[in-house]
Amino acid sequence: MLKPRFLRDALHGVQLGHPLHPALAMFTAGSYTSASILDLIRGQEVAATTMVGLGVASSPLTALAGANDWAELDKEQRRVGLVHLASNAVAVGFYAASLASRLNGNHHRGRLLGFAGFGVVNAAAFLGGHLAYAQGAQVNQAATQLHRISDGWHPVADISALPHGMPVSRSIGEVPVLVYRDGDRVSVLLERCGHETGPLGEGRVVDIDGDACVECPWHGSVFRLNDGLVMHGPAGSDQPVLRTRVVNDVVEANLP
Length: 256
Prior knowledge:
The protein is an alpha+beta fold.
């Protein structure tokens, strides 16, 4: 696990509110894709070489962000992630050799190595898609809980029964939520952590820059209780928050 924590958070994409690795991967893979297209066009050797160079140069940071996410995954996800990483390493090897050939003037060999790398990088991308869409790696898994809540206002708790400064677990139908009262303001967050569905209701409350936050007991993701803003990873996305109102001293919540 990388240290210090702000570096881990940056590589998770905390400051962006979105996982960083997929964005970097799009740039790297896009550079390789552009090079492959240019290699099919006569007279584009310089442009193709530039795109290969950009792809190779961006690969280490892309891999570092991916490895940072990988360290927080479960055993099955890690297994697929290792193959994904190994495939990308092979692809970078092909492209590094392709770049060297192009810089030495052997563009024919560079194109062949580039096409080989392009095939491998697409196989690696398929595994990355499997990790995200089939295994739910680094996606906001709490967001799907919103679809289980019907539209309309739902009673959550009597405001007089809510302690000040301490979140409590409640539910809307079968969906667990976390209710937090700060003076006259009440916020309602989905209770299952967006990273790996950890129970935020069992997490501890921590203070960050004067704001009350909840820390997931499973992997340590931290969210601000007033608005669900992600403060620390491994979660890269904000925790979903419902709209709230108070009617006749009853806190009600609705979809965002």
